[in-house]
Amino acid sequence: MTTMSSAEPTRRDFLYIATGTVAAVGAAAVAWPLISQMNPDASTIAAGAPIEVDLGPIAEGQVIKVFWRSKPIFISHRSKKEIDEAKSVNVASLPDPQPDSARVKEGHDQWLVVIGICTHLGCIPIAHQGNYDGWFCPCHGSQYDSSGRIRQGPAPANLVVPPYAFLSDTKIRIG
Amino acid sequence: MSGPSTYQPQNAFLKWFEARLPIIGLVHSSFVAYPTPKNLNYWWTFGGILSFMLGVQIITGIILVMHYTPETTMAFDSVERMMRDVNYGWLLRYLHSNGASMFFVAVYIHMFRGLYYGSYKEPREVLWILGVIIYLLMMATGFLGYTLPWGQMSFWGATVITNFFSAIPIVGESVVTWLWGGYAVGNPTLQRFFSLHYLLPFVIVGVVVLHVWALHVVGQGNPTGVEPKSGQDTVPFTPYATVKDSFMMVVFCIVFAWFVFYVPNYLGHADNYIPANPGVTPPHIVPEWYYLPFYGILRSIPNKLAGVIAMFSSILILVFLPWLDTSKVKSASYRPLYRVFFWIFVAACLGLGYLGSQPPEGGFVIAARILTAYYFIHFIIITPLIGLIETPKPLPNSISESVLKSSGAVAAVLAALVGAAALLMTPSAARAQEGAPEVPIPPRNSWSFAGPFGKFDQQQLQRGFKVYKEVCSTCHGLKFLSFRNLADPGGPGFTVAQAEAIAAGFKVQDGPNDQGEMFERDGRVGDYFPPPTTWKNEAQARQLYNGAVPPDMSVLAKARTYERGFPWFLVDIFSQFQEEGVDYIVALMKGYKDAPPKGFELPPGSVYNEYFPAHAINMPPPLTDGRVEYTDGTQSTVDQQSKDIAAFLAWAAEPHMEVRKRVGFQVMVFLVIFAGLMYFTKKKVWADVHGHA
Q1: Residue B681 and residue A15: Cβ atoms within 8 Å?
Q2: What is the rounded distance in angstroms from the CA atom of residue B439 to the CA atom of residue B442?
Q3: Does A12 touch chain B (CB under 8 A)?
Q4: What pTM does this model have?
């Protein structure tokens, strides 16, 4: 190639830059569908629509498990003892401070609805176990109380409360 | 790769790395500094295009496997769900299926380039044979891949091809049983074909590496057939060949994009949208277009074993070409006699391809036999003979000398594209002759969704849906459609609330409940259309409907076609006509006659229909004037109802059609601009070689 002074951008440079830019845009446009296809598809998203759960059959002291978006959801019909224990704790002393009132719906504090996935590394804690009248995770020993809050063990956060609402006293919609 | 690498890294890390694994130097000497003859024309860009297409197929294929299930009861469904639900699933599927055809277009151009310019001659014999091996692997891969969607053509193509091996004496039947993994093509067959289809492309990659290595050892051929004599004759691969190959790749992508976005099912076969049925063979089994010439050769030999041997021989004979061709001159540019026979050979191949698509009857058989004989005569008699008796034109002394006198290669590019187009016409030629000849061609209707900017008429889709709901759903399922699709963009345009209400109007089976019982509940928007209530299984359907099973309608509009005939099947590729299915459906709905014509024997339990194959259909006329009440003021005639239901089924079969055409337009505009920029870039890069700054 003949030597050229690079003092000024030439038409040749502009052409090369333009072609390179268009090529880069093309590459990005091609890459996007290849990446996007791995996201949840339309049927998975549709299957993740909100579900309704009838609370009537759940006895006091019972914890049931339902699935929403492939995640286990604990629905706990708390006894008076469990409610009192949850409310009487010194919130500031908790590893992840949160009052019980922030984790239940007003007027329905006998119902605790949490995602049943340990916030440590994802195992499902076992109900009615552990020292805090709550859950015990067998994988690494995290212990949750009757409000689903972490009390002891490696988990960093309380069990997550999913979006839900009461449709009536005996029916909730999760999601 | 002749001589040590000239790569001298300046960077300290690169020096350290190069001393331990000289891969950068290898890439540099093979694809940057590599001396390339400077007179290569555009026929030489197809090697790069083939590598590109191999990459496209592997990438789209690996992604498709993320969504595909290789099991007979789930394969067809998994492909359909991918087309509908996976983000850009329709695009990935069409890229892969049309990519296979484009891969073969490129390989045939590449091979015919070799035949014309003597690329197989000394010292490139091993290079050529590696190419034949790659071609055989491509054919195997293409066959295996085509079985995976598990449509009618997949299944029956698999049956026919595996039955080739039964021609082997003594062990033939055992070999076939071993291939099948059963007594017929079935699930074991599908699963192992899936495994092999995933494997072979990587074997192809390996042989391609050998192929490029073999090429680099001896150097590229060139249009004169005179080997490079000095540095004057060559240019470094980068940027010269790189930019020229890239430019042609973009042009190639324009053709590729045309098929993917505008006529994605043109090169395929409508019967493959019918789920595989081991009990019914389609009336005309044809392989994909790229196998048609060999299919033509196979069928022209009346003996089973001889036919199979002839077919395989027609490919294997290529291996011997370096020794069959006695000419000392490589390039047909300087071989006036051979050139004539080259083009006759091309015509013979196209002819065999066309004949492979026709039913093996009458004049077609005679023509196929003549062309088969000619095919072998070309290699065994003509090619050796011409080399001995021909007087070639005087060769230039060097490449540089020939470059000073050369003319442009634009004509060659155009010829290539015309040739490619001709190759791609053969599939519709196949369709053009299908169907019993006495069934008339359905009249052409005008559809709002036809053409590159077509859109569905939402009111029409809503009316069509009403026809489905009130008439067809009694017996026909729509299993790939969900109620939520009714509210999707590009569809009938119901609101989510309306879709929910429609869903609630259907009863859906659910369960088991806590008592262990299955139960019925109102449909929810996320549910799929439930199966018809009139029959529980195929056996019951056959008992109710005189042996017929009402087909599911989800892809019906793509699963039906009719003969287009000459010259329409050529025009269709440019006019983007792909409404054969809906035209057929309308004709069928309106084609009922009260009584069959004189002399026609109507089988008991069936009704005469003008357009149904063999004229006897088990479904009584479903539509009558006023049968479905239209609330938008449209007159509810049979004609209107049939057009509305056909349009609805067109949407049901291709719910993403509007997106496909819109994205297609953007892609085409982009590619044309990009091609223009690449062209001028290429000219600028080559300016000094072409003799002007």
Answers
A1: yes
A2: 9
A3: yes
A4: 0.92
Q: How confident is the model at residue B432 (pLDDT cuts 50, 70, 90)?
A: very low
Report the DSSP beta bridge partners of residue B522: B507
Contact B499, B487 (CB under 8 A): yes
* Marked catalytic residue, from A77, A108, A120, A140: A140
Instruction: Give me the residue spans of the domains in chain B.
Output: 291-408, 458-481+528-654
Q: Comparing C-alpha atoms, which of A33, A19, A75 is closest to residue A51?
A: A75
Closest approach of chain A CAs to the CA of B67, in angstroms? 9
Contacts with B377 (C-beta within 8 Å, 6 or more apart), sequence order = none
- Which residues, including other chains, have CB under 8 Å from residue B570's CB and lie 6 or more apart? B425, B428
Ordered domains of chain A (ranges, CATH): 46-174 (2.102.10.10)
Q: Measured between CB atoms, which of A37, A43, A49 is closest to B88?
A: A37
Tell me whether residues A16 and B524 touch, CB distance under 8 A.
no
CATH no. of B291-408: 1.10.287.980
Which stretch of DSSP H or E encloses residue A166?
strand A164-168
- Chain B residues with CB under 8 Å of A41 CB are 67, 81, 85-87, 89
Torsions phi, psi for B359 (to 5 deg): -65, 140
A140 belongs to the catalytic site: yes
Q: How far apart are CA B645 and CA B237, in angstroms?
A: 58
DSSP string of B563-620? ---TTHHHHHHHHT---HHHHHHHHHHH-B-SSPPTT--PPTT-EEBSSSGGGEESSP
pLDDT in tens, B19-41: 999 999 999 999 999 999 999 99
- Per-residue pLDDT tens digits for A84-110: 999 999 999 999 999 999 999 999 999
Written as six digits, the tokens of B203 are 């074997």
Which of residues 35 through 74 in chain A touch B, CB cutoff 8 A? 36-39, 41-44, 46-47, 49
CA distance B606 to A148: 68
Q: Which CATH architecture has domain B458-481+528-654?
A: Orthogonal Bundle (1.10)
Q: How far apart are CA B142 and CA B97, in angstroms?
A: 10
